Each structure stands twice: as C-alpha cells, then as structure tokens.
C-alpha cells in the first residue's frame, strides 16, 4: 500500500473502570466507521485532504465524540465549535473558530480553504460565509446529547471548565482529528472540536489554530492534537514537532516524544496527538491516561486503542 491514515477521538478518555463492554464497543465502532471512511478514499486514489475530511465527518456525526453532534456545552449552554484542515503539498489551510449550528464544522473549514481567500474565520462572519457557500446548518436540538448536558450541569455554576478528566467519571469528551498520507505522497491533517465543557463563550482552543492543534507540511509531518488547548496553544505543539524535524533533522518519533512526553508534561499540558510523515510513519503519543485512536499503516495493518 502506498497510503496510511491515523485518527483520534480525543485524549480525554473515560475512566477504565467505567468503560462497560457495550460502551467500549460503541467507541471502537465510531473509530472504525471513521477509519473506514478515510481509508476508502485513499484506496480509490483520493487525496489525503479528502481522506482526513471524510474521517472527521464520521467522528463529528458520532454522538460519543466531542465534535459536531456530540459537541460539549459551553458556560452559557451553547455549542461553539472549532475546526481546521491543512494540506502538506502547498500549506493551504482553512479554519473556523467559535461557530454555532454548523452540522459539520470540518466542511466549513474546508470551504474556507477552497472557496475563500482567507485561512481563518470566526463566529457570525464564519456562519454568514457558511450560508453563502451552502454549508448545512443544524438547530440546537441536533447538538443535544444527554451525556454532554449532564457533564455541563455538574460544572455550570462554577468557573471551572474541563477537559476529559478521567478522574471525573461523567466527563468523557474529546476533540477528533485525522492525518493521512495519500498515494501521491501528500499528507494532510484535520481537527474538529466542541472545546472544553463549560468553557467561557468565545473561548477558542488550539484545534483551529494552525501550528498549535493542527499542521501539515509534506517536508515534515501532518499533526492533529487533542488535549488541554490552552497549553497546546502556548507550546505551539504541532509546529514545534514540524520544526524539530525540519531544523534539527529529528525523526517523527523523536520529535513527537520530545514535545508530548517532555515539553508538554513540564507545563502540565495533558493530551496527545496523531502524526504522520510523507514516508507513512505514524505516531500516536499521549501523556493522558488514554486517547481514543485508530490507524491503518502502509502495510495495511489496522490498530485501535483507548488506553496505554
Ligand atoms: N484541544 C481541545 C480544546 O482545547 C479539547 C480536546 O482536545 O479535548 O479545545
């Protein structure tokens, strides 16, 4: 095979003792739908960009993951979502921040990349642009899931906002993302998220920020992150990995290890990422208790994982 793909459903995993066999099956099924959708495109000689978008759409439509349908509630009880897509062949990128009622934020990010002269759009302006290019909207009910509502009820009267703290039994969430290498030798990355439960409205995380939560460059790597966004922003995680490869000549594995297992840990940046390079090497490091993840490597071997 000349292609490969990896994806994540968030670094904030449910506490192992609460993962019933049914729930485990449901999470793995969601990951499987997504890896299948992405890989199908790669098998048919589609592009890495198309593949990561297809994988992320599946994850956005799957209520267990914190993106699209399963997006968490912010402090005022709304769903504000962030998404980004980037392709390594020409460094083209599109991102959206703080958008509401967009059924698949990744499609809007893709439209920003392909149908506008801009890279990043936020809030009302992004939604107006979405209307102008025919992106599908969904009403608030679509984004209501009982699980997310309960998570929010636990937090809404506080100023706390939360990542997927495994210590907090009810709080399962996670950004989603994918990276891929296509048969033309190009790589791409996509990330989509509802952010963190009970976040201040208007708060934007790392996911839609090129270089922080999402990055792709054929000369180095494609990365999609998940974790405590504030720390991932400050550590410029995705671009830092790319720089370690570009300027220091490190391998994907070495660069990922330094950033996720050392630099992020030192500043308390809980989370992980999926990464691929143009040779098809895949890395899925995380410093949290778990990270929902799946991959299909160049040899066609499929893997799934939740915990270490
Ligand atoms: N990184 C995301 C954010 O901070 C959250 C997550 O990955 O779970 O918005």
Give the topology, please.
Elements (H helix, E strand, L loop, with lengths): L3 E5 L12 H23 L4 H14 L19 E7 L5 E7 L5 H11 L4 E3 H10 L13 H10 L20 E6 L5 E7 L20 E3 L5 E6 L1 H6 L2 H12 L3 H16 L3 E6 L5 E2 L6 E7 L5 E6 L1
Helix pairs in contact: 1-2, 2-3, 7-8
The structure holds aspartic acid.
Keywords:
308 residues, alpha+beta, Glutamine Phosphoribosylpyrophosphate, subunit 1, domain 1, eight-stranded mixed beta sheet, four-stranded antiparallel beta sheet, 8 helices, binds aspartic acid
What would your notes on this structure say?
The chain is of the alpha+beta class and 308 residues long. It has one domain: (Glycosyl)asparaginase (Glutamine Phosphoribosylpyrophosphate, subunit 1, domain 1), CATH 3.60.20.30. It is 33% helix and 21% strand. A hairpin with a 5-residue loop joins strand 9 (271-276) and strand 10 (282-283). Helix 1 runs antiparallel to helix 2 (48-61), helix 2 runs antiparallel to helix 3 (105-115) and helix 7 crosses helix 8 (252-267). Bound molecules: aspartic acid (ASP). Aspartic acid binds at residues 10-12, 66, 163-164, 173-175, 193, 195-196, 205-207, 213, 226-227, 229, 232.
């Amino acid at each position: 095979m000349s292609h490969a793909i990896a994806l994540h459903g968030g670094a904030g995993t449910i506490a192992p003792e609460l993962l019933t066999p049914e729930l485990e099956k449901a999470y793995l099924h969601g990951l499987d739908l997504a890896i299948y959708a992405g890989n199908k495109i790669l098998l048919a000689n589609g592009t890495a960009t198309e593949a990561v978008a297809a994988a992320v759409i599946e994850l956005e439509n799957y209520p267990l993951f914190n993106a699209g349908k399963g997006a968490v509630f912010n402090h005022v009880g709304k769903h504000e979502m962030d998404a980004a897509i980037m392709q390594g062949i020409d460094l083209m990128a599109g991102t959206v921040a703080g958008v509401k009622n967009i059924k698949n934020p990744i499609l809007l990010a893709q439209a920003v990349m392909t149908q506008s002269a801009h890279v990043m759009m936020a809030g009302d302006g992004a939604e107006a642009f979405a209307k102008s290019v025919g992106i599908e909207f969904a009403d608030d009910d679509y984004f209501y899931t009982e699980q997310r509502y309960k998570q929010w009820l636990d937090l809404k009267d506080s100023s706390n906002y939360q990542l997927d703290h495994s210590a907090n039994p009810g709080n399962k969430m996670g950004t989603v993302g994918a990276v891929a290498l296509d048969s033309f030798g190009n790589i791409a990355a996509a990330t989509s998220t509802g952010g963190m439960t009970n976040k201040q409205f208007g708060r934007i995380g790392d996911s839609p920020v090129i270089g922080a939560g999402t990055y792709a460059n054929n000369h180095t790597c494609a990365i999609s992150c998940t974790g405590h966004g504030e720390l991932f922003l400050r550590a410029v995680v995705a671009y830092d990995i790319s720089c370690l490869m570009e300027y220091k000549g490190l391998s994907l594995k070495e660069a990922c290890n330094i950033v996720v297992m050392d630099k992020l840990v030192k500043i308390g940046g809980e989370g992980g990422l999926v990464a691929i390079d143009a040779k098809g090497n895949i890395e899925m490091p995380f410093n949290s208790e778990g990270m929902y993840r799946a991959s299909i490597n160049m040899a066609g071997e499929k893997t799934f994982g939740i915990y270490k």
